[in-house]
Design brief:
Layout: H1 3-34, H2 41-57, H3 63-86, H4 94-115, E1 121-122, E2 132-135, E3 138-141, H5 142-164, H6 166-174, H7 178-183, H8 188-213, E4 216-217, H9 223-236, H10 241-261, H11 269-283
Antiparallel strand pairs: 1-4, 2-3
């Protein structure tokens, strides 16, 4: 097996890992402040992709404007989900919020199914993302450069927000003790809503790049990416932003390299990810970079 082939698969794995990372960061931030696995998070990927699709195809918007509208509306949807579905359950048992998250996921999927239909649509790829670059025999799609670059930029932005701003300090305080934060005069609900908006924006970017990599756009397209991103968040350390990004990269590389090196296992690529989750929960529940969080 030659060097170029391995490098080629690593490129594909990093590209896929970046997509998982964008979703996993949203998962891990929401869990950090609420101890809630927001299973509706993956469906925001689908919503953002549909908004951009209709912006380009129906309203003939330039792709940067269509993507920008998709980011803004997906962020607002994340805010609406928090205020409408999760805020009333802040003091309820966590199982209630978890069931609500599953219900919101089904609601988004079935609204899209009824309103738009189940027939897959082909997502348009702007010219700037098309084409490939030959690097010493390794064929790298231009989309891969954009995916890795935008993911790195967004990760740096999130880290700056979390560790260098007042709202980030409030987010980290909420992850430790919600009641003490409220007693100090901080509007916890506003900080939580900001976390949902930020996670939804990352999911929107993930949706755009996912649809340009896998052009079939349909109402249930966010289910498996969302579940894989959850695995990535747990793998890296649920509640840790950098860990979620690392987990996404590891999962993406593992999926691509296993299929490339062991083609007979290609039908088990989804099973591999969830087996990894089970093994990790049994051996290291906090993940690679995670730490024990207070109850």
């Amino acid at each position: 097996m030659d060097y170029a082939f391995i490098c080629q698969q690593v490129v594909f794995g990093l590209n896929l890992g970046c997509l998982y990372a964008l979703l996993a960061i949203g998962y891990t931030m929401v869990y950090g402040v609420l101890r809630l696995i927001n299973f509706a998070h993956g469906d925001l990927l689908m919503v953002a992709a549909y908004i951009a699709f209709f912006g380009i195809i129906i309203f003939h918007l330039p792709w940067p404007l269509a993507f920008g509208v998709g980011v803004i509306l997906t962020g607002l949807l994340g805010l609406m989900i928090d205020r409408g579905a999760y805020k009333p359950l802040r003091r309820s048992p966590r199982i209630s919020a978890l069931i609500t998250a599953i219900g919101v996921s089904f609601l988004l999927e079935n609204i899209a199914l009824v309103v738009i239909g189940g027939r897959p649509k082909s997502f348009p790829k702007p010219e700037v993302f098309s084409g490939v670059v030959n690097l010493s025999g390794v064929i790298v799609p231009k989309l891969a450069f954009w995916t890795v670059g935008i993911t790195a930029l967004l990760l740096c932005l999130v880290l700056i927000i979390v560790y260098r701003t007042k709202v980030g300090m409030a987010m980290r305080a909420l992850s430790r003790d919600v009641e003490t934060v409220r007693l100090m005069g901080i509007d916890a609900d506003r900080v939580i809503s900001f976390t949902f908006v930020l996670g939804s924006v990352l999911a929107a970017f993930g949706g755009f790049f996912w649809c340009m990599r896998y052009p079939a756009l349909e109402p249930f397209m966010g289910v498996f990416p969302g579940l894989k991103a959850f695995v990535a968040a747990v793998l890296g350390g649920i509640g840790n932003v950098a860990g979620a990004a690392l987990g996404g990269m590891i999962l993406g590389l593992a999926e691509i390299l296993i299929v490339a090196l062991l083609p007979e296992w290609s039908g088990y690529r989804h099973a591999i990810a969830f087996t990894l989750l089970i093994v990790l929960l049994l051996t290291r529940p906090t993940g690679i970079m995670g730490e024990e969080l207070p109850e």
